[in-house]
Amino acid sequence: MRARNYFVGAAFALLAGGMAHSAMAQDIKIGEINSYSLLPAFTEPYRKGWQLAVEEINAAGGINGKKLVVVSKDDGGKPADAQTAANELVSSEGVAMLTGTFLSNIGLAVSDFANQKKVFFLAAEPLTDAVTWSKGNKYTFRLRPSNYMQAAMLVEAAAKLPAKRWATIAPNYEYGQSAVAVFKKLMSEKRPDIQWVDEQWPPQGKIDAGPVVQAVAAANPEAILNVTFGADLVKLVREGNTRGLFKGREVVSFLTGEPEYLDPLKEETPEGWIVTGYPWYSIKTPEHDAFLKAYQAKYSDYPRLGSIVGYQTIKAAAAILAKAGATDPEKLIAAAEGLSMPSPFGEITFRKIDHQSTLGAYVGKTALKDGKGVMVDSVYKKGADYLPSDAEVEKLRPKD
Amino acid sequence: MSVAPPLLAVEGLTKSYGGIHAVRGVSFSLRSGEILALIGPNGAGKSTCFDMLNGQNKPDSGHVRLLGEEITGKKPREVWRMGVGRTFQITATFATMTVRENVQVALISHGKQLFNLFGSAPNFDRGEAGRLLELVGMGGYADRPCGELAYGDLKRLELAVALANQPRLLLMDEPTAGMAPRERVDLMRLTAQIAREKSIGVLFTEHDMDVVFEHADRIIVLNRGTLIAEGSPAEVRSNPQVQAVYLGEGLLYDAEHREGASA
Amino acid sequence: MAFYVVQFLTGLASAASLFLVASGLSIIFGVTRIVNFAHGAFYMIGAYIAFTLTERLSGAVGFWGAIVLAALAVALIGVLVEMVLLRRIYHAPELFQLLATFGLTLMVEDLVVLIWGPDDLVGRRAPGFRGAIDFFGQNIPSYDLFLIVLSPVVLGILWLLFQRTRWGVLVRAATQDRDMVAALGVNQKWLFTSVFAVGVFLAALGGALQIPRDAVHHAMDLRIIVEVFVVVVIGGLGSIVGAFVAAVLVSELNAFGILIFPKISIILVFLVMAVVLIVRPWGLFGKPEAAARKTPGLTVNPWRPLTSNERLAALAALVVAATLPLFAGNYALTVGSEIAIFVIFAVSLHFLMSVGGLASFGHAAYFGLGAYGIAFLAKMAGLPMIVCLLLGPLLGCMGAAVFGFFAVQLSGVYFAMLTLAFAQIVWSIAFQWVSVTGGDNGILGVWPEKWAASPSNFYWLALGVAALVTIALRAMVFSPFGYALRATRDSLLRSEAVGINAKRIQWTAFVIAGTTAGIGGALFAYLKGSVFPDNLGISLSVDALVMVLLGGVETVSGAVIGAIVYKALNIWLVSQTDLSKLVLGGFIVLIVVVFPKGIVGMLEMLAQRRRKASPPGSPLIAKPIESAE
């Protein structure tokens, strides 16, 4: 059969490809994986962010004098492909560590790969609590505030609302389910008096918004928790606006203040939603100013939250590599645990106990300004303040 | 001592479609080794009748018995297992397989080896397949893809396939349709010879009256779903009712042809 | 009460866009027999172009003009696609057109991002239909009312078109019997082109009309295409009225279903389709398909076992492949393992599809079940790897036994759609039943034991199993069972007439294919160390189809080559570029046009041409084409 010949040919091609890349041995390489083709709206700004970081780091002399190179791969939104990419980065490219990923399942797949192959992995965006807790492992660290942290930040504001009858709308998969579960749990602890009167679980990416809005309205809640995002959010908001669902009701919404999700809404932006997000236009700190200026100078575009995440991921990776002074994973872990560093949001620390960074998020209210959605009354919430006690975390995390 | 039941006994076969009687109360019988022709003008119910004999179609009422055993309502494959082979008006063969393989499929089925996953089918009963093909004069075509065969050859192949389970009864729906006159004679002669040698009963429908009158031992005539005549070729030929039916149809048939030719 | 009325109206509005797109698909399939996978892509392009035009043209006239213009523009693109691409392959094996349109879809997904950028786009609201109308305290968006009125109007126009025009009569005739229309001396080419244009126009109109209520983005096509297929099948292929009724049925069931089971949306359409197909195998308004050609494509080269020389060559190739670990690195070996696993997956589908003539659109279900089988056995029961590998595929086997029983009662596209429905149901369970399957986050830590952990050992394991499976399935093709299976594929009538219980044969083949796919899935779980609902998903099922078609559906070992080429190319492209879909799609389209019989089919033809030393254009070359007509 000619089959095998093709096969060998393909293998040779792959080999050759691998060799061509690993020519410069003096550089320090970081392997980066993300869903570039599936989620370009989020990964484009993210890529710009990390490219800016690489530029800054190398302009400042690299890592302990060595040039930093980021080798980036697309995972197409599939965990299995992300693992193939991780494998290529580790085996063929010889990267010092893996970073990146957006979707929770891909973050977990790469985290599990890292654990198995004993490779350092810095997860950038995946939100699921499992990455650092129930499926946490010694090789995996995470930058972004987790689902739990964002829920805790929102609950703090939501608990102050007078509303007692709550409904939830969340995409029907692990992220939506766990966001609702954590929110409900924390909320009920603070406010035993509230009632959950309806829950809607549209399929992710396929919301049939009309009936969902109608069904929620029929339950007549005083407040609504929303976890949908992206195109689903647009449909939900449009139907909700037309049908008056949000009139006289409080809405608490995950991630909606991020420019990635808020900007497409334009004049449809609902006002007064309590959201987590990134109001880049109203952050007045020196750290952020510096970042904003550099970013706008390089790209003539404003940053999205993805830009911050991409930027800080590589900055954090570089800080870890610099402190470790080596690329041995055990040394990287030792260097990363408890390491503090500056970020555009202020100083952050990678906790020793669960490898979660203390990067926080902004909580504020949505508003409409000049036909565009913005966040107002934004307050930065430090990640460290919204994590459970160490004793609880110990219980959540499997023993290494 | 009771008389041995006939090979095929059909009793009061009836079938209607949406109130129109396609076949109404048809009864006849067939002996082993006998060649019986079923004729009638277009739309007389021949095909419907035929399809009910091997289970392709279920009658509304009536019985079909093979050597006294009820076969009404049985599925075609069950009827085949009882020893009834069949050929179709429009040939049905396995087009992507070779001529030999077509016969081998029938032999595999006959040998109850259909679920044999690891045997070698190309070598399955090659000898018997070859003999059957020789019998119908297709020996030289064994390795030809079935899809390449001329229509007449396909008809002969169908005959070989139908003979693979050593049938007691052969049902042949227009066996010579689409063949050249010479081929028709050859095929029917062959069929008759096989039927007599192996004592197989043959029931066939046919449009070509030359074929019918030359090869049938007995003829039954259907018109508008009912049996209007039965007897030897000579008897049927002289039956005025049959003449009336066929004269009309013959005219019609000719007229159609002339129209078609001039168009 | 008012609430239920409004919920009903909301359901009707949701049905409108579904109906528009579905009716287009139904017309195209009815006449050309093309399973137009790109229909969702046309819907998406319609939305994108309408977005651009509605932003440019102002006022009410501008808005509505833009919607119609967009649909017309896309219809024009459709005409081009039909003339340049599809026309060349009407005579290729059935489903090959599916491959071509799949390639187009891949390309379009990347192209729209290149043209319109990655961000979600939110277009204008429709002038005159911005607000809502108060109905006893309930709000009904006026745009919904517009859509509710529009779809019966479109239905009416289509009805008039089909009943009252010569074109319509021809289309209906062609839907019932293509050959007859050809015989009537109608210019079939232009009939097909015009039908394709109308179908695409409806899809694009459906997309353009989403502007006021949806976001325009590059995954819109996938969001709708599967659902639209389902609606078309529930309604009955080729039936416009059926598409209308099915769209309303599905939308209303959803609108009211979420009041009782809020989680039902994800699975509802597939449940409805499965039930409808089991009860009414040709959909609500469909007619049994005329006894069309059953084979995926007629080949005049009968299959034959390998000669002893070919066997030696295959063995030599296998030996060469087995030496890969001596010189290749870990990454190449892991990719090699993955390719070997996809060879297993592809040959399993090939057995069902090429040998059995049953093209499954949901074959990943059994692959994924095998993978989940491993995850359950290894993670929950803690069994050793060898035991898991032996028992894990049984889950695929059981799934295939249950679903296959129902699926083989149908044939053709209906069979394909029922398998798709079952696969989606299994996927939904894996996706939603978080407590058992981990949902989207999957089951982690399913790594091989020490003896198989090193990339070279695992590679040898995968290669060995792939070789065994390929040999076993090939042996089955030439076993008595294989002959019987091919017999049922070539002629159901004849096979029943020679005592073959076709359904049981096909069911057995389904179980064999499912179990084999399960073996592939089991190895895949160990290769990746984890199992995700993706492993049962539609895109994996489509991958399998593409691999078989690419290799050549009429060949015995095309699937092996198809799997190797497609998978290697896919992995390589994903690694090299973010535009892998564009390149891969382009490659597929090219293959379809250049090698309409698949890669191996083409090689066989060349080999045969050389063997017979006949000049090009000889009857030998012409015949396969003729026979497919």
Question: How would you characterize the overall build of this protein?
Answer:
The complex is a heterotrimer of chains A (400), B (263) and C (629). Chain A is an alpha/beta fold. Chain A contains 13 helices and 14 strands. In chain A, strands 7-6-8-9-10-13-14 form a 7-stranded mixed beta sheet. Chain A has a 5-stranded parallel beta sheet with strand order 2-1-3-4-5, sandwiched between helices. Chain B has 263 residues and is an alpha/beta fold. Chain B contains 9 helices and 10 strands. In chain B, a hairpin with a 2-residue loop joins strand 1 and strand 2. In chain B, helix 3 crosses helix 4 and helix 3 packs parallel to helix 5. The radius of gyration of chain C is 25 Å and the shape is globular. Chains A and C meet through helix 1, helix 2, helix 3, helix 4 and helix 6 of A and helix 1, strand 1, strand 3, helix 9 and helix 10 of C.
Topology:
The complex is a heterotrimer of chains A (400), B (263) and C (629).
Chain A: H1 3-21, E1 28-34, H2 40-59, E2 68-74, H3 79-92, E3 97-100, H4 104-117, E4 121-123, E5 140-142, H5 147-158, E6 165-169, H6 174-190, E7 195-200, H7 209-219, E8 223-226, H8 230-243, E9 250-257, H9 259-262, E10 274-277, H10 286-299, H11 305-324, H12 329-336, E11 340-341, E12 348-349, E13 361-369, E14 372-381, H13 390-396
Parallel strand pairs in A: 1-2, 1-3, 3-4, 4-5, 6-7, 6-8, 8-9, 9-10
Antiparallel strand pairs in A: 10-13, 11-12, 13-14
Chain B: E1 8-17, E2 20-30, E3 35-39, H1 46-53, E4 61-66, E5 69-70, H2 76-81, E6 84-87, H3 99-110, H4 126-135, H5 151-163, E7 169-173, H6 181-198, E8 201-205, H7 209-215, E9 218-223, E10 226-231, H8 233-237, H9 240-262
Parallel strand pairs in B: 3-8, 3-9, 6-7, 7-8
Antiparallel strand pairs in B: 1-2, 1-4, 4-5, 9-10
Chain C: H1 2-32, H2 39-56, H3 59-84, H4 96-116, E1 121-122, E2 132-135, E3 138-141, H5 142-164, H6 166-176, H7 178-183, H8 188-208, E4 215-216, H9 220-235, H10 240-260, H11 265-279, H12 308-322, H13 324-327, H14 330-355, H15 364-380, H16 385-391, H17 393-407, H18 412-432, H19 434-437, E5 443-444, H20 450-453, H21 455-477, H22 480-490, H23 492-497, H24 502-528, E6 530-531, H25 538-551, H26 558-576, H27 580-594, H28 598-612, H29 619-628
Antiparallel strand pairs in C: 1-4, 2-3, 5-6
